């Protein structure tokens, strides 16, 4: 098993600059969400959050209720919500780790050994219906993937298992207890790929063994076209999804949905199983996620996410989950 140690691992993942209010909490019962009725959407930014449980219960938080959770953690300014922002640039800070593999062309993703961070935070989700996707840890008991990876489950079983740092054979895993998605997501909608994001709540802490990535609080307009970004995915193009493939030097351009906010059209190559993987950059010793793979545009990955929107739906989902599952 990989044991990942990060200096000031909690401080690096504060929900708000200068605030540790969420991190000081103990884990709370999810029962305080149970039975919450959907309210009419307000004029405030964002959408509601749908929480599905293993026992078949579904709870919908309205946009107002989600905004209150964010405000309780971060104050009145919603744009400052979620994870501490780390701006990427074309040169890493002195002392930053370099990628574990040599640079590659975008035409040839290559297999890596995910024994070290940040690659160890990436893994595979196996649904109980046989559908598999890539996944990334974003907390001790939290992971992100594409929402369409939830293809249903058998009876009252869990949604499936998350295997971090999978290499050849299955090893350490955690079961998925809850599935959080944006109420804005509809598989039939024209803008489905903007909101095709889910946060998975795991039944036990595996993040302190394998590490987790941060989430960018905002994807800036001037990040488009920059070759800062990386991707690790478990695909059917290499070893039948048993080993991770790595791409770096990735850039993206913004889509024309949601008034041009998203999704993120990248030049990374995509294959079966790439869906659910993250687009991320490495800064200050941490991986920072900007989008989640949803679909393909020809052969290239399209990542669910939004440019110039704060808080994004990814930010909102992670903040709701962290309100129940602190990082300590």
UniProtKB/TrEMBL annotation:
Question: Could you tell me the superkingdom of the organism this chain comes from?
Answer: Eukaryota
Q: Which residues form the signal peptide?
A: 1-24
**Keywords assigned by UniProt?**
Signal
Positions of the UniProt region annotated as Disordered: 81-112
Under which name does UniProt file this protein?
Uu.00g045860.m01.CDS01
What is the organism field in this record? Anthostomella pinea
